[in-house]
Amino acid sequence: MKSVLFSRFFILLPWILIVIIMLDVDTRRPALPLTPRPYFSPYAVSRGGARVPLRRGSPGRDAAKRNESRPRPHPEPPLPTIYAITPTYSRPVQKAELTRLANTFRQVAQLHWILVEDAVARSELVSRFLARAGLPNTHLHVPTPRRYKRPGLPRATEQRNAGLAWLRQRHQHQRAQPGVLFFADDDNTYSLELFQEMRTTRKVSVWPVGLVGGRRYERPLVENGKVVGWYTGWRADRPFAIDMAGFAVSLQVILSNPKAVFKRRGSQPGMQESDFLKQITTVEELEPKASNCTKVLVWHTRTEKVNLANEPKYLLDTVKIEV
Ligand code: UGA
Ligand code: MN
């Protein structure tokens, strides 16, 4: 009797083990992504004091999956994608700048990073960097012609245009999903609130920029919810006296103005923003953000040129390290 029980037990044992393993595999959570998700609170306090999520998706994503079968009372409208076009060029601080930027962008839901290298080819440094950045991205490149690489001339014209061309090409056949574009230079500093503000852009939105134009800040002047002028220390006569970091444009506006680009010819120094905005909007149409343009949520920071005076010419380090 005992031996019969034993033999049954040993016949069943492997099957029991298989079932246990399968159940375990099924319920195991997916592996963590390479880049961990927000380490800070994913909530921001809204004006009324309520906590509103900064990003949709994780950590709430798993919970949403589990509830998939339950009917939702009000399906949420799709979150407009934020397309950030960043021109970038090779220099000692490039990887540091891109690291700061990626660390910010990783906290933002539904952001697509369009990184455009000012170079004849995609560099290995940037390619490797993007592969590990944990962000949806598009990696483009276009070199600035040598004749335009001079002090006093506008920077990154060709790179921003390459980003615009990519966006238009990508959306040429399908009806545009909701989206917002902004130009994110690689050395500026962006608060997370800025992305909440720009996400609701209907056509073209504007906001103050800190540490720019020889002032603590510049801002659009707003009366009764409309932009009526510019607080700026430099050429207030510009139709749009605003830095590249001070506006966002809806994807729809970019697509319905297919010829709007940054211009080299006929563009005076410091007029790039104004020349571009003139092609797609009017001052009356602008949508003021950041509490009627009274809050600074982005800073035109500039990184000091790094001192490499003591780099060795011979007796180099025994290993080659990417910096
Ligand atoms: C100011 C504005 O904030 C920029 O948006 C504008 O492009 C620039 O002036 C201009 O003169 O055209 P600033 O801090 O002086 O900014 O310019 P940078 O930060 O040096 O360059 C703007 C962007 O272009 C950066 O993302 C930078 O990486 C990129 N860049 C700069 C290139 O791609 N190639 C270059 O040769 C220089
Ligand atoms: Mn800059």
From TrEMBL:
Site (Interaction with galactose moiety of substrate glycoprotein): E218, N310
Active site feature: E273
An MF annotation (GO) of this entry: galactosylgalactosylxylosylprotein 3-beta-glucuronosyltransferase activity
Sequence positions that bind Mn(2+): D187
Glycosylation positions in this chain: N292
Compositional bias annotation for Basic and acidic residues: 62-75
EC number(s) reported in the record: 2.4.1.135
Region feature Disordered, mapped onto this chain: 50-81
Cofactor: Mn(2+)
Transmembrane segments: 6-25
Main location: Golgi
InterPro entries: Glyco_trans_43 (IPR005027), Nucleotide-diphossugar_trans (IPR029044)
Entry's localization field: Golgi apparatus membrane
Family note: Belongs to the glycosyltransferase 43 family.
Protein name per its UniProtKB record: Galactosylgalactosylxylosylprotein 3-beta-glucuronosyltransferase
Naturally occurring in which organism (per UniProt): Castor canadensis
Lineage, broadest ranks: Eukaryota, Metazoa, Chordata, Craniata, Vertebrata
Gene that produces this protein: B3gat2
